[in-house]
Amino acid sequence: MKKYDFPEGFLWGGATAANQIEGGFNEGNKGLNIADVLPGGKERYKILLNPGFDFEIHPDQYYYPNHEAIDFYHRYKEDIALFAEMGFKAFRMSIAWTRIFPNGDEVEANEEGLAFYDCVFDELNKHGIEPVVTISHYEMPLHLVKEYGGWRSRKVVTFFERYVKTIFNRYKNKVKYWMTFNEINSSLVMPIQGLGFSIQKEQDRYQPTFQAYHHQFLASALAVKMCHEIIPNSKIGCMILFAPVYSFDSNPENVMYALQEEQLFNYYCTDVQVRGEYPAFINRYFKEHHIELEIQEGDLELMKEGTVDYIGFSYYMSRTEKKAKTDEDSSEGNIIGGIRNPFLKTSDWGWEIDPVGLRITLNKLYDRYQKPLFVVENGLGAYDKVEEDGTINDDYRINYLREHIQAMGEAIEDGVELMGYTSWGCIDMVSMSTGEFSKRYGYIYVDKHDDGSGTLERKKKKSFFWYRDVISTNGEKL
């Protein structure tokens, strides 16, 4: 097998999100967030898209897996010790906004929440693991959703600024790597989790979505500026969901359509946060969809001053497009749309598996921006079986990860500057898309099931030992 030369200091590790692992949803004076009202199961998205969704908890009607999740809130020492045993150099996690400001608009922060993350960061640092912290990861305070309409309100920028200033000052000696908004561009598909509101009618989608984005871009720029001022030796990046868009064939109409889809989904948010200005291609889109942004004096200057240091991104799949699609063409498993690619296999959940697409992604991003890149999410959601002797032989996961790490190695040889790799769901947790426990990504199995049963016992899968060897050899042994 070909050996790859990963750079010295490469940040090998794993990635999680507070709302998917912590649990303790009503402990430590934490307030409710969007994730706390999301029911579990494959109907999750249909419920969210229902205009009658009321953002309330209905325990008699639904099960809410995020409430307990895998109980990282109480078991973080045990889990971090397992990460250290694998040799993690970095652990990507997020701070739950409502642990710090329970409603989101308070003036004073919640000390219990601040103290919890002090303990987590201290534990990581004790094991020599760099925290890579996402500031906002699909867990907007529910009060800001109900009272202000989410990011549609410019007032939320002020609340976010207060939150960010608080955590930067508190953790400036404990956290070096930061990211602003998780998969910020995903709100083009599902605004509820990233922007804090649902679309009632398709024709009403455009104006509120892009105005809310403008507010998030301002918030991101403010965060970048504050991070550089408060933590001078820090690095702060954006975080996008990147899926390269392929044309179905060489028909120029389909090639142009694929280009336009890629511009909007992959580059719109990234251009603003990396280059500090709106891209030229968006002007026509705004005109055709009757979008007129409310931009105040100083906004564009702030965006220019608050550009990120690196680009963090998730990569799970590519996307294939043609202009005239039919229902028969659709690839239902790919949550970001597109049509079925006949050259690709799919996961248990129908996600198309395309390791070469990761190399394509890395080259596209580096060619466009010449900024350091960081793969902060990538992994395989699959059904895992515990054998009678307690082992979990997840060779399918090892093969998936190996092929994607090889793609990264090839991209580095292509000249791409790559900082690190934190594979998604290093420990089993609640799936964001479906709220299931059975969709497992981890190197560590957690005994927790879709009906809420389970002991929460942790078990090492075969991939645990494989990834330990990958890290210890800096990617030489795959």
UniProtKB/TrEMBL annotation:
The keyword Hydrolase applies. One of its GO terms (biological process) is carbohydrate catabolic process. GO terms for molecular function: 6-phospho-beta-glucosidase activity. Coiled coil: none annotated. GO terms for cellular component: cytosol. It catalyses: 6-phospho-beta-D-glucosyl-(1->4)-D-glucose + H2O = D-glucose 6-phosphate + D-glucose. Keywords: Glycosidase, Hydrolase. Its EC number is 3.2.1.86. The active site is at E377. The keyword Hydrolase applies. InterPro entries: GH, GH_1_N_CS, Glyco_hydro_1, Glyco_hydro_1_AS. Belongs to the glycosyl hydrolase 1 family. This is 6-phospho-beta-glucosidase. It comes from Bacillus salipaludis. The gene is ascB.
